[in-house]
Amino acid sequence: MLSHAPVPAPTSQLTIDSAPLNSFHKRLTLFSSGGPFLDGYILAIIGIALVQIIPQWQMNEWWNGLIGASALVGVFIGGLVFGNITDKIGRKLMYTIDLVAIIVFSIAQFWANEPWQLFTLRLLIGIAVGADYPIATALVAEFVPSNWRARLLGGLNAMWFVGATVAAFVGYWLLSLDDGWRWMLLSSAVPAVLILIARATIPESPHWLVGKGRHDEALVILKKTIGEEATLDGITAHDPNAVKLSTGKAFKMVLTGGYLNRVIFISIFWTCTIVTLFSIYAFGPQILALFHLESGDAANIGYGLINLFFLVGNIVALLVVDKLGRRPVLIWGFILSGVGLLFLALFPTAPLGLIALAFAFYAIFNGGPSILEWIYPNELFPTKVRATAVGLCTGTSRIGAAIGTFATPLALTHLGLSGTMWIAAGIALVGAGASYFMAPETKGKNLEDAASLHA
């Protein structure tokens, strides 16, 4: 009898979209989430720091609003400028430069003695944070398998609320010190150092490398990160014009035709999501004090609990976004969070339990729009302008958020609590309307199909 050697089974090929989730994807997502963690931490900590700064410096409502909004103005500048630079020089280099800036300027806040000094430093920190948005999200979007993309990108945004929650309790703890606000603002340098060290192990994006014609480098990275059977299949073929894509051409591509419609949609829904959210974070203790919560410990504990509700809402939204789809999670998130704000507008003197329930209702259902802030921008634009587009949308959303944050203390003074909440409820309604008429459905699509105008 003749013996026959067994025929080896054909080796399966792996692509970015078909690869199973592995330890590298988890590390990449965790380290990339450092940027939103810091963003949430930096914005939330100022809300508690201002409790001490305002009486110590005898600041008026104008400086109060300017310092509260300064980081948001910086995010606008950073996202607008550095998103395009990231598309040119790569994700990895900018991935570390921005953290160095956050560390330096966070430490410098400790020695601020005038409102203009603190405003300037927080503006510079915001620029660095704004630069990180398009960098970190593009890396995750371009590395992870398609069936995990929404959950991991949304998870980055959830880390914003983790950072804000940690800041609330750190700030509450440091309020017992006479100059506790200085240590609060300095403290953001600590996680920034840890994140900087961790990110040193993250390679360049294969999508970006292929877009620059560096196919061999991209394949080496894929083999190291997803397996030896990895191929470049599913990554857009090299476009020789991509290397020569100037800043003007990149913005022109993003701001014309169907992509302009996507920029408008994302900018509107993102702005409507964060205007009220950021105002609550920047002035949370002051707002809660007006809702019958005495200033001091009770207000700050309530502030921390609201942060936890925001985080719960993000987690719930992450669990359902791939099952229900992007559109329903976004639209119903706006509608239901708006109901909570409407109650606060109608009944600002309601019993404390109902006030807390309304805040919790708003915070939990805000999770849907919140996680989609980073899912939609990364899915709806092609690789060669993805960071440019994300930076642009980040920046434009921060214009409205900065205006809203600056105007919050003025609105509370001149319109009262109920009037301010009416405006917030109206903003949620605008977000729901824009989402209903403009939001596409990208559930189940790979990154290239989701970004295509013809898919």
Give an overview in words.
With 455 residues, the chain is mostly helical. It has one domain: Growth Hormone, Chain: A. Helix content is 77%, strand content 0%. The protein is built from 19 helices and no strands.
Task: Indicate the topology.
Layout: H1 23-32, H2 34-57, H3 61-89, H4 91-108, H5 115-143, H6 146-174, H7 180-186, H8 189-199, H9 206-211, H10 215-225, H11 247-254, H12 257-290, H13 297-324, H14 326-346, H15 352-365, H16 367-379, H17 383-414, H18 416-438, H19 447-451
Please tag this protein with its features:
carbohydrate:proton symporter activity; MFS_Sugar_Transporters; transmembrane helix; mainly alpha; Growth Hormone, Chain: A; 455 residues; 77% helix; disordered N terminus; transmembrane; MFS transporter; 19 helices
Please state the structural category: mainly alpha
List low-confidence stretches.
Answer: 1-11, 237-244
The helix/strand order is: HHHHHHHHHHHHHHHHHHH
Residues in helix, %: over 70%
CATH superfamily: MFS general substrate transporter like domains
Distance between the termini: 57 Å
Please provide the count of β strands: 0
Q: Give the C-alpha Rg.
A: 23 Å
Could you say what the CATH architecture is?
Answer: Up-down Bundle
Which percent range describes the beta-strand content? under 5%
CATH class: Mainly Alpha
Separate helix tally: 19
Q: Report the biggest beta sheet as strand number plus sense, adding barrel if it closes.
A: none
Q: What would the average pLDDT be, to the nearest integer? A: 82
Q: How many distinct folded domains?
A: 1
Morphology call? globular
CATH topology-level fold name? Growth Hormone, Chain: A
